Amino acid sequence: MPGDGVARVPGVSDVVQLFATCLGDLVFPDAVGDAETLLREAGFRVELPSRQVCCGQPAYNAGHHAAARRVARSFAKAFSRSAPIVLPSGSCTTMVTHYLPELLGVEPYDVWELSAFLDSRGVELPRRNEGRTIAYHDSCHMLRELKVSGEPRRLLERSGATLVELPRADLCCGFGGTFSVRQPEISLSMADDKLGGAKGAGAEFLVTADPGCLMHLDGRVRKVGGVPVVHLATALARGVGAAAAEGLAAR
Amino acid sequence: MSGAAKLQQESGSFRVIARGKLNDDRIQGALDLSVSRLRGLRLDAWEQLDDLEELRERAHELRMRVVNDLEGYLAQFTQALEARGGHVHRAATPEEASAIIVRLCQERKATLVAKSKSMATEEIGLNAALEAAGITPVETDLGEYILQLDGTHPVHIIAPAIEKTKEQIAAMFTAIEGREVPAELEALTASARRQLRQVFLDADVGITGCNMAVAETGTITLVTNEGNGRLVSSLPRTHIAVMGLERLVPTLDDLSVILRLLARSATGQRLTSSTTLITGPRRAGELDGPEELHVVVIDNGRTNLLRGRYKEMLACIRCGACLNVCPIFRKTGGAAYGPVYSGPMGAVLVPLYVGLGNAPDLPHASTLCGACTEACPVKIPLHELLLDLRRDMVEEGVAPRWERWAFTAWSFAWSTPLGYRLSTRLARLGQPLGMAAGPGKVWGAGRALPQLARRRYRDRPRG
Question: Is A64's CB within 8 Å of B22's CB?
C-alpha cells in the first residue's frame, strides 16, 4: 500500500518528489503546476527530479512488457526513496504501486496520488469553489485499485464546492489507453454517458484526478460540447471558475 | 456430423458488431435496463450476507482445490455416480461430445429431445448435431426457446434473450399459436407453457447442463428458475447432463458455499426457485425420475488453462455478475464476443479455449476498469488475466508487428531524459500531421486531439 499513513503537520518543510507523469508534463502542464502549488501551499518543499520520464504504463497495459520495463527503469533512476513521491494521476500511481516493482524486481516505493496525499496530511484549502456545483468522476484505477474515492470529494467540499453524484459513478468513462482507439465507438459512447450524467446531475463542472480520463472527456467536450472537465489539482488550486476563465476548461 | 459452434467471432468483427448494437437505441435501452437491474439485485443480495468476504474466500479456495487436482476429483465423482447407477462419458472435443450424445439418442430411438438451459451444450453446438441426425431438440428455458425460434444465440450466459423486447416475443408467439398473444409477461409465459407442455411429456430424452457436481456423492446440481430443468431431468426416460470438466466441488458442504453465492450473484436470489440435486437415475421403488442418467464431461480447451495463473479462470461458476457490471458489455451485449461466452469471463475464457490467434480482439475488449474483478463472487482477477493475455499476445507474436515496433521504438526513446526531450520535440513538430492517419485520426474522429504544450512542465520556470 502506498505511503506510511502518518499525518504530518503542514508548515514543517517536508520534502516531496513530484512526478509530473508524461501526460502531465506534455499535455497538462498547468495541472502539474497546480499540483505543485497545492503542495507548496500545504508547506511542502517540492522537488521535481530532472531525470523523470514516464512510468511505462501505456506499454504495460497494451501487453508490451519489455518496452514497459525499458521506460519504467527511468522512473527507478529518477526517484529517490528518501521522500514521498506524489503524482497528479491515479492511473500512473497504480502503475507505480501495483505493477512497476514486480516488473523491475525492485522494492515498492512510497507513492501517493495527489488527493490521497493532501487528504492524509489534513491540508487546509482556500474556498476557491464556493457556490460551485461540481461532479467528481472516479477514475477506475483510483476507485478500485487505489481505493481512493472519498479523498478527492472531501477536498472539493473543503474548497467550498457543492458536490453532486454522477449516476452510475462506478462506470468507466471509456478511455482505457489503447482501448480508446481500438474501440472508438464504444469509447465515445461511454464518454457521452459520463458527460450526459454530469449534465443530468446539474453539475457546472466535471472534475477528475486522472489525466487519461481528462484527455478523453475534455477532448469529447471540445468536439461536441458538454459540461467542462477540469483536473482536480486545477479545481483546487485555482477554482473551477478561474480555470474556465483562463481557458483551462472547454465547454 | 455438423461442426461445433465456433466460440469466437472473426478477427476484427468485435468492433463491427459493437457498432451495430450502438446504433440500435432499442438494444441499448434493453441492455442497460437488464444489466443495471441484475447488478442492483446482486448488490442488494450481497449486502445481506454478513460473511460475504469469508464466503468468497472459501469459494475461491475450494474451487482452486478442485482445479489443482481435476483428475482426482473427476475420478471420485465418476466412481460415486457409477455406484449409484449413472454413467460418465469423457469428451475431449465438441465433436466427440456431440457424437456421444447423438449415439445415446439414436440407441434409444429418440426423435424428440427436451433441453433445459445449458451453456455447455451451446459450446459443443449440440442442437445442430442433433438436427443433422434427424433428432429434434427443443429448448425449454423461456429465453433459450425464444432464441431457438429466432435462430440466434444467447447474448448473456444467464439471461440469454435480454436484447429481445416483449413486443418482439409476442409477435413470435402470436405467429406460432395462431392467436393474439399480448405483450405482457404473464401472457407470454402462459403461451410458452402451452407450447412446451407437450414437449416435456413426449420427449424421449432430456438434456440438461450441470451447474456444479459433487465429487464425494456423485451428485449433479441444476439451478433454474422456471422448473423446466426439473421436468427435463425427470419426465423423459433418459437424462443426459453435459458438464465442463471443472464444474466440481469436493463435498456437499462445499456445494452449499457455492449455492449461497451463485444465485445471489446471478439474480440476487438467495436460492433459485428450483435447485435440483440429482444423484443417479430412478432407483427401485422410486416413483419418478429417469431410467438412465448419463453425464457427458467435456474438455474443449479447458485443460489449456491449467498453465500458470490462467487456471484461476477455471474457478468460474458462470453467474454472469461480471457481465452485468462491465461497461463494454453494457454497450455491445454478448454477440460481439462470440455466440456462447461473453463479457469479461468470455473475454478471458474464449482466447484460452481457442487460442489467442483466433480471438485477438477479446483481450483488448476492455478498459481494464476492474469492475469485473470486484464483482466476481469467487475472486477471479479477471482484468489482470486480460493483462496477462495481452502480454502473451505480444510474446507469442499475435500482436501486429507494427504495434510491437511502435512500442519498442517508443520505449528506447523514452528510456532516457534526452531521448524523451528529442522525441517529444519531434512529436510537436509533427503534431499537425497527427490527424492524418493512424491512432490520431481515429481519436480525432470523435474527440479533439490533445495539444502538446508549447513548453513541457519541466522546462517552465518554477517558483
Answer: no
Classify B4 as helix, strand or coil. Answer: coil
Domain that holds residue B150: 13-302
Cβ atoms < 10 Å from Cβ of B395: 14
Contact state of B460 with A74 under an 8 Å Cβ cutoff: no
Q: Does the residue B355 lie in any domain?
A: no
Residue B391 lies in a domain: no
ipTM of this predicted complex? 0.94
Q: Does A222 touch chain B (CB under 8 A)?
A: yes
Residue of B361, B418, B457, B459 to mutate for A, most A C-beta atoms under 10 A: B457
Per-residue exposure over B273-285, b if at least 16 CB sit within 10 Å of its own CB, e if not: ebbbebbbbbeee
C-alpha atoms less than 13 angstroms from C-alpha of A137 in its C-beta half-sphere: 36
Residue of B nearest to A250 (CA): B448
pLDDT for the residue B438: 82
Q: What percent of chain B has pLDDT over 70?
A: 98
Chain A window 128-167: which residues touch B at a Cβ cutoff of 8 Å? 140-141, 144-145
CB contact under 8 A, B18 and A172: no
Kindly state whether residues B50 and B172 are assigned to the same domain: yes
Cell of B52: 460475504
pLDDT confidence of residue A13: 56
Nearest residue in chain A measured CA to CA from B455 = A26
Instruction: Answer whether CATH 3.90.1150 is correct for domain A127-245.
Output: no
pLDDT in tens, B83-130: 999 999 999 999 999 999 999 999 999 999 999 999 999 999 999 999
- Gap between the Cα atoms of B314 and B318, Å rounded: 10
Does residue A10 register a pLDDT over 80? no
pTM of the predicted model as reported, rounded to 2 decimal places: 0.95
Q: How confident is the model at residue A210 (pLDDT cuts 50, 70, 90)?
A: very high
Left (φ > 0), alpha (ψ -120 to 50) or beta: where does A21 sit?
A: left
Q: Quick one: pLDDT at residue A250?
A: 81
| CA–CA separation, B15 and B19 (whole Å) | 6
Contact B389 A26 (CB under 8 A): no
Residues B294 and B412 occupy one common structural domain: no
By Cβ distance, the residue of B391, B424, B446 closest to A63 is: B391
Among the three residues B302, B336, B364, which one is the final residue of a domain in this structure?
A: B302
Question: In this structure, what CATH number is given to the domain that contains residue B187?
Answer: 3.40.50.10420
Take residue B315 and report the three cell numbers written for it: 474457478
- Count the domains in chain B: 2
Chain B residue numbers touching A169 (CB-CB < 8 A): none
Interface test with B, best of A26, A52, A103 (most B CBs within 10 A): A26
- CA gap B239, B292 in Å, rounded: 6
Model confidence over B373-399: pLDDT tens digits? 999 999 999 999 999 999 999 999 999
Q: Give every strand in the sheet of B248-249, ordered side by side.
A: B248-249, B212-214, B219-224, B274-278
The answer to whether B374 contacts A188, with C-beta atoms less than 8 Å apart, is: no
Q: Verify whether the Cβ–Cβ distance B387 to A61 is below 8 Å.
A: yes
Residue B179 is classified by DSSP as S
CB contact under 8 A, B442 and A184: yes
Residue B5, pLDDT score: 58
Residue B377: inside a domain, yes or no? no
Closest CA to B215 of B253, B241, B263, B262: B253
Q: Poorest-confidence range of A112-126, B148-162, B217-231, B419-433?
A: B419-433
Q: Give B103's DSSP letter.
A: H
The amino acid present at B251, given as its one-letter code, is T
The kind and range of the H/E element at A17 are strand A15-18
Q: Are residues B289 and B430 in the same domain?
A: no
Q: Does A140 contact B325 at a Cβ distance shorter than 8 Å? A: no
